[in-house]
Write a structure and sequence with these properties.
mainly alpha; 12 helices; single chain
Length: about 210
Amino acid sequence: MTKIKPHTATEQQQIARFISCLNQAMVSGRHSQRELCFRMGITIGSMTKYLRGSVAPLRVGLGIQAALAHELGVTLDALYAYYCTGEYVTDVTVEQVVSWIRSDSGQADLPGLMDSLREAGQRWVGGAPEPKALPAAKQAAPYTWPIEELKECGVSEVFRERLGLTDAALRKLATKGEFTDELAEAFGIACNYKKEAVIEAFNKRVPVA
């Protein structure tokens, strides 16, 4: 009988991150285990092994990892970097950006691309980006209470991401006062507040009473 070698300390750390990624993909995509299995092209038995920590991620097939990266909205390189370092680090080249624009970008991406190009052009000629106009009520200092409250409640970055409390969403709330019902509900779950109270606080840009 072949004796199974125990996982090294490094592999155990990578396995924990792999499990975190799988759970994040299910939560963020609102998929059941079976649905995620279908999207990743694996059996429910394989998923069970992954979630039990029986398989190190670097021993999982490239196609499966590529499918998981797609579900998480990151590149395959970034996913492997996360397994090894705990951070989604990736180097994106100009050639990759150009290739993406030519092949994958759609009309919905164009406004953001044009804004970025305009701001970059202003930097190149020594100018500053034009400030984006906000309603008069939004011209106050950034609304940082939600971010501070999440830290005070000890909400981890991983849990925030799973709930949809991303840095981008919190930044938009802080600077523009924009948020969705889903974001308010997720914040309430994370910090144990009622959704209605959170919505009222977010609209008034004050702490929950």
